[in-house]
Automatic annotation (TrEMBL):
The keyword Magnesium does not apply. It comes from the Bacteria. It is a multi-pass membrane protein. It holds the Pfam family MIP. The lineage of its organism: Bacteria, Bacillati, Actinomycetota, Actinomycetes, Micrococcales. This is Aquaporin family protein.
Length: 254
């Protein structure tokens, strides 16, 4: 298998594990028949942070982007190659993003399999969708977009900053380190996650939303495609802004 193939597989497996554990904690909290039902937003936030920890550990071969916003942010920062040693070009960017979205669909499918009986007995269609996809506390597309941009900017800017401080290791979340990036995701969730559920990752929301649409989930309702563009466009903008900003801000701050 060539280097790009290894990167694709690494990103796919890492993102699948990330979504399996992340959406899994949401299922545990949101579906009424579970032992973790009612565990609250803090439990979800900690679970997502540790899910990122696991995904980063597994996807070390690719630099563990696990997120199109991270990939595009690194492109915008004028990186010449990713942490995997793969040069930055159209083919490598497409491979990263395709693997991330496919991995997210796969991880969400495993969540459905793990909680199949609970999905069948859950009376609320909104709770079922909430396992897979984010949704706003107050629906206001413009302000929801702003929240996602800010949260993703923080994620990507800190990742690039930490990598730049480690002799240019700017290849992805792995440059930050599994535990620090887990803590970063937790603090973003606890500080900025309330308005939208903090997707901060287009693949994390789009992949599971596609899975929700395709899977034969008993009693499901709409996949809320009207909102689906927000957790894709917002993180993309936030990641690009972080990448562009890092090119001139980080040398000054250093």
């Amino acid at each position: 298998m060539d280097n790009l193939g290894i990167v694709f597989l690494s990103e796919l497996v890492g993102t699948a594990l990330l979504v399996l554990l992340g959406c899994g904690v949401v299922a545990n909290v949101a579906l009424t028949k579970n032992k973790g039902f009612g565990g609250g937003f803090l439990m979800v936030t900690i679970g997502w942070g540790l899910a990122v920890f696991a995904g980063v550990i597994v996807a070390y071969n690719s630099g563990a982007h696990l997120n199109p916003a991270v990939t595009l942010g690194l492109v915008a920062s004028d990186a010449s190659e990713f942490g995997s040693g793969v040069p930055v070009n159209v083919a490598s960017v497409a491979a990263y993003i395709a693997a991330q979205i496919l991995g997210a669909i796969l991880g969400a499918t495993f969540v459905w399999l793990a909680y199949k009986q609970h999905f069948d007995q859950e009376p609320d269609p909104a709770s079922k969708l909430g396992v897979f996809a984010t949704g706003p506390a107050i629906r206001s597309y413009g302000w929801n977009l702003v929240t996602e941009i800010i949260g993703t900017f923080v994620l990507v800017f800190v990742v690039i900053a930490f990598g730049a401080g480690r002799q240019g290791e700017n290849g992805g979340l792995a440059a930050l380190g599994a535990l620090p990036v887990a803590l970063l995701v937790i603090v973003i969730g606890t500080s900025l996650g309330g308005p939208t559920g903090y997707a901060i990752n287009p693949a994390r929301d789009l992949g599971p939303r596609i899975a929700h649409f395709l899977l034969p989930i008993k009693g499901k309702s709409s996949s809320d495609w009207a909102y689906s563009w927000v957790p894709v466009v917002g993180p993309v903008i936030g990641g690009l802004l972080a990448g562009w900003s890092s090119a001139f801000l980080l040398p000054i701050l250093a």
